[in-house]
Design goal:
alpha/beta; Rossmann fold; eight-stranded mixed β-sheet; 7 helices; about 30% strand; binds S-adenosylmethionine
Length: about 220
């Protein structure tokens, strides 16, 4: 699968997939979008000291990296499970400019997010534990995590590009796999997605989006 590295409007990289004609992030700013949708609306909603977090789509590792950096400020512990079917290559990861833009002293740890083993827990820092699972997240029937989640970053490709990732069964399963009060956020504010989240049982609010996006969704169990 061909992937092209592009620069978004805030100077940070994203990937473009010609096959799907789809970007991994908003072209108006990858870092800006991730901070807005996943850290501010999602992670910061959770007031627990130890947080079980699930990400759908590890991709460039940007959300994971921002979350790791956040634990250094918040003092919280995050156990971060990320599901990904098509991991990016180490050669691509070496070119991403996230650590250069965010904290050049963290280049090595950013690369460790990518090079760490799949399928098991790895302590990246005392406060950030990562478990990457290479699997098809469009069917979560056999996904049986040992602890329920507090925060979910739902970061799949857009419904028009990958409809199998936006099905009622998935949101029902995520609801079951979450703690009471857990939050799920996504950049996608389509009415059909909002209704699927609502019918799974979530209380859904539309929040203002990052530049280039009118609204995002925040769903609370
Ligand atoms: C919008 S991008 C994710 C961006 C990522 N969170 C980041 O910060 O770079 C969507 C991700 O979902 C992954 N993906 C696509 N189909 C998948 C599937 N069936 N199961 C799991 N992951 C999938 C893609 O490979 C891609 O990494």
């Amino acid at each position: 699968m061909q992937r092209i590295i592009e620069i978004t409007e805030d100077g940070s990289h994203t990937l473009y997939l010609p096959e799907l004609d789809e970007h991994y992030h908003s072209t108006h700013g990858a870092i800006r979008e991730s901070l807005h949708v996943y850290l501010e609306a999602g992670l910061h909603h959770c007031h627990k000291e130890e947080i079980n977090l699930l990400e759908i789509g590890f991709g460039t590792g940007l959300n994971a990296f921002l979350t790791l950096l956040d634990t250094e400020k918040s003092g919280k512990i995050v156990r971060y499970t990320s599901l990904e079917q098509y991991p990016v290559s180490i050669a691509d990861a070496e070119q991403f400019n996230y650590s250069k833009l965010l904290d050049p002293s963290k280049e090595e740890i950013f690369m460790q997010l990518h090079s760490s083993l799949w399928g098991e827990w790895v302590e990246m820092t005392p406060a950030f534990h990562l478990r990457k699972l290479q699997m098809d997240a469009s069917n979560l029937d056999n996904f049986q995590p040992e602890t329920p989640f507090d925060v979910i970053y739902y970061d799949a490709f857009a419904p028009e590009k990958q409809p199998t990732m936006w099905r009622e069964e998935i949101f029902n399963r995520l609801y079951t796999l979450s703690n009471q009060g857990a939050v799920l956020t996504t950049y996608c504010a389509k009415g059909a997605v909002r209704r699927m989240l609502q019918s799974a049982g979530y209380q859904v609010t539309r929040l203002p989006g990052p530049p280039g996006k009118r609204e995002i969704l925040k769903a609370i169990k």
